[in-house]
Amino acid sequence: MSRFLRVSAILIVVCFATIVHAQSFEATKRAAEKGDAEAQCSLGVMYATGRGVAQNYTEAVKWFRLAAEKGHANAQSSLGGFYAEGRGVAQNYTEALKWLRLAAEQGDAYGQYNLGWMYDNGHGVAQSDKEALKWYRLAAAQGLALAQNSIGTLYSDAQNYTEAAKWFRLAAEQGDALAQYNLAEIYATARGVATNYTEAVKWLRLSAEQGYAEAQFNLGGMCLTGLGTAQNFTEAAKWFRLAAEQGYPDAQYHLALMYAKGLGVARSYTKALKWWLRSKGLWPK
């Protein structure tokens, strides 16, 4: 009953790795206005996150740019990420690529990961698994779980499941929810490892507890069928509900069935209809 879909990171990641010290916004701004690159990057982080000041992506871009032009690697990576997402500035993959490359070549792990993502997805540059893998590996060597998961995805796409499992595990053991889900899929489908539903449930649970909807849905399925864990309709309904409340259609459909049959919940045709309509996108918003 469980339906696994391998997942890789689908969005560029902006990392605010710069430590914003316990100084006030005003103190940081004064230092930034004097041309201190670290303060300028910190001020960008403050505007980007709304820490100590109202969130303002346009101001964040302004300060990241000033620091980036001075060669600040984290500011370059953040500015590249903002261009890639069109946050506080018009989306421009060419500009994103320029700043991410500068950060990556300085050894910034998030710059390396994001540059790999650009090659992986063909944004601003010709798609190239080879170049993507090159930059992902550099970021992964610094322990970046996002990059490790992405390497696993590339190997899985190439049907090298043994290597995929290795990289998914490295990221999963760092607590990356996507990698935990992907590793669960590896165990459930016997790709690169022997089938082990108990291990699949273990990693699904870790991912689900972080709020990952696909993991919550599949964990509900394992609880419903008793694969890798004791059959428990109440637990199944719980995980279906958590995924359903995040708008996951398959979970909404299965929760409707649980209500219709009275499995793990009190039977309610009204609630069954509600969740069925939601699964079909027919419930009024």
Structure overview:
With 285 residues, the protein is mainly α. Among the domains are: 18-107, Alpha Horseshoe (Serine Threonine Protein Phosphatase 5, Tetratricopeptide repeat); 232-285, no CATH class. It has helices at residues 25-33, 37-49, 57-68, 73-85, 93-105, 109-121, 129-141, 145-157, 161-172, 177-189, 197-208, 213-225, 233-244, 249-261, 269-279. It is globular, with a radius of gyration of 22 Å.
Fraction of helical residues: 55-70%
**Radius of gyration over alpha carbons?**
22 Å
Distance between the termini: 29 Å
CATH superfamily of one domain: Tetratricopeptide repeat domain
Q: Any low-confidence stretches, pLDDT <50, length ≥5?
A: 1-11
Q: Summary?
A:
The chain has 285 residues and is an all-alpha fold. The chain has helices at 25-33, 37-49, 57-68, 73-85, 93-105, 109-121, 129-141, 145-157, 161-172, 177-189, 197-208, 213-225, 233-244, 249-261, 269-279.
Secondary-structure topology with pairs:
Blueprint (H helix, E strand, L loop, with lengths): L24 H9 L3 H13 L7 H12 L4 H13 L7 H13 L3 H13 L7 H13 L3 H13 L3 H12 L4 H13 L7 H12 L4 H13 L7 H12 L4 H13 L7 H11 L6
Helix pairs in contact: 1-2, 2-3, 3-4, 4-5, 5-6, 6-7, 7-8, 8-9, 9-10, 10-11, 11-12, 12-13, 13-14, 14-15
Could you name the key traits of this structure?
285 residues, Serine Threonine Protein Phosphatase 5, Tetratricopeptide repeat, 15 helices, globular, disordered N terminus
